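INFO worker-7 received task bundle
INFO bundle size: 2
INFO processing item 0
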Amino acid sequence: MKNKVKILEVQNVSIAVVSSNNEDDYICITDIAKTKESDSRAADIIKNWIRNRATLEFLGTWEQMYNPNFKVVEFDHFKMQAGLPSFVLSPGTWAEKTNAIGIYVKLGKYGGTFAHKDITLEFCSAVNPIFKLFLIKEFQRLKEEENSNKKLEWNLQRTISKINYKIHTDAIKENLIPISLTANQKNFIYADEADILNVALFGKTAKEWRNENPNEKGNIRDTATIEQLVVLSNLESINAMLIQQEIVQQERLIKLNEIAISQMKSLINTNTLGKLK
């Protein structure tokens, strides 16, 4: 399989991107880690991130969605150890033991730890959420150049939201839905939880938005700005974690709203944000 390496310049930082013949893109998260610490500390940042339970849940979900050869038993073993002070995990070990395809380590020129574009965004959310926004815009520009002769229907943020949504609904299913509920009742709980995110970020439910905008096509999230989509994907992962911690819905809503306000302020107040519009 022939791989092509391209370099993205994001906020004066060079980020290596490897594109294969099957059109999968892998981005160097080692380069991204260097935006927070020195070169020598980048590997430690990645190891600390990957050993986190929420990260392992995300990686495991992604692999089960896209990798038929993923070793679920090994994944469960790592997940059981997550949170223990003695638990240590590197990207290389993760890939080797679970047969994962979402992360790999590349040696030589343009070497480092590379992650699929979906996983890269999750890494950015944890390490440098502001940088994530600029990376999305620059990566979209790259894809537009590659697809200049045809309409581009690909959206990086929508891609990551699909995975976050599955993690979110899995957390609801495992922690909030009694076995005795009917299918219609279960669907109500999913919609109710989705509206928690809507209220936390947009200040209204999907139904309230529809009543206020009867002539609009789509739904409340289809009209979201790029900044709101970035925050929304972060809130989905955070809410899944809060559900697993058995935090009641009202407390989760307050916490999610505080996080949404904080992250939106950070994005909007970024001095160079205007360059992205």
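INFO item 0 finished
INFO processing item 1
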Amino acid sequence: MMSGTELARAIVDQAAHRAADYEKHTGRKPCLATVIVGDDPASVTYVRMKRNRCHRAGLDSRLVSLPEETTTEQLVAAITELSNDPEVHGILLQHPVPKHVDERAAFEAIAPDKDVDGVTMHSFAQMSFGEAGFTSCTPGGIMRLLDAYDVDPRGKHAVVIGRSPILGKPVAMLLLARDATVTICHSKTENLPDVVRTADIVVAAVGKPEFVRGDWIKPGAVVIDAGYNEGNVGDVAFDEAVGKASLITPVPGGVGPTTIAVLLEQTVDSAQRQLAAL
């Protein structure tokens, strides 16, 4: 079982130590600003959880809560104001946003040096080219899990199910950078179960409960379930896959904790980089 809980605790503890050192030298804490549009219950819960984790790690947390009817222009303006605020070190736009909002335009309003969630095109390019920058948090957490459990992707066949710009595509780039041979699958992939059966590492990021069945898993494969669906169910049929996989992440308690831990770590990174640039 690949538990993310203890790994996340270690990441957050180190981030908290660095945040305390930053506060000692500057008189202020690293600050993460979270923007939420509307009152979707799941999003409200996620935001509350992230803010609580911030406080426990010694970070400031600023909440910008906007009504459901907020336009793209209004959201972009709010994010631009945070991007220009020297007291803010990281910006997180809680997604998904309402359907009438252009989410990509909102993401791109985040200043690259404050994109601690790794959602902008600038961050994706830096990550893909191996340049210093911010990693998309869930993919970053997945790579930390692989390292913690001594899974070396080099030479392995990794199959990523999902091609979202904040999960599927970036985790594929990170695996490729670690010398894995990567196949990205999606809703149009033909013979998907047969493709997955060739994988040494499976990353399920499709957003459908128990989509990946146990008989899709090659014996001994490493299975990373990056999905989270209603009822605490992942994208992998866990009870079927657990007997086939050599390592597997549970839902909850697998990828999720590491995602938040990387977010906090990168907020401290951002604060220290901005201080060094002064």
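INFO item 1 finished
INFO post-check item 1: The chain has two domains: 26-111, 137-256.
INFO post-check item 1: The two ends are 44 Å apart (CA to CA).
INFO worker-7 idle
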